[in-house]
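Can't paste images in this forum, so I'm doing it all in text. The chain is below; anyone willing to post the predicted structure tokens underneath?
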Amino acid sequence: VTASMAQSYIESKRLNPDKEPLMAVHSSRWEREEPEMFMDELTQGTLVHARSVLPHDTRRRSAECYIGSKWSCMVGFLCNDDVKFVDELHQKNVFQNKDGSYCNCWRNKVVDDILVPKLEELMGQSK
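Text version of the structure:
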């Protein structure tokens, strides 16, 4: 995580000593008052990209997550790297891998190829 992506808990406390960050991420008060989240980099981690799906939103995945479905699929099915993303078609459930399997999400190559190796290298140095 770079400084341009997130401000650490320690840096936030240094810059705003009188302001206590809200740590309850799923509260409507947090969403309304604190759209940015600060973390304690010594005791907390963060995902560069994460999508929350509530359990009840996955119940109908077999009825909603298929090629040509008129419903929005709430579960991510990974597309192979050769499947081209087209924004205009994204909500129409038309993407499929070469084997015919339905897909609706793409891997973030920057995360996989650049950020994860850097993180693994830094974690190896901390041992």
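The radius of gyration is 19 Å. The first helix runs from residue 9 to 15.
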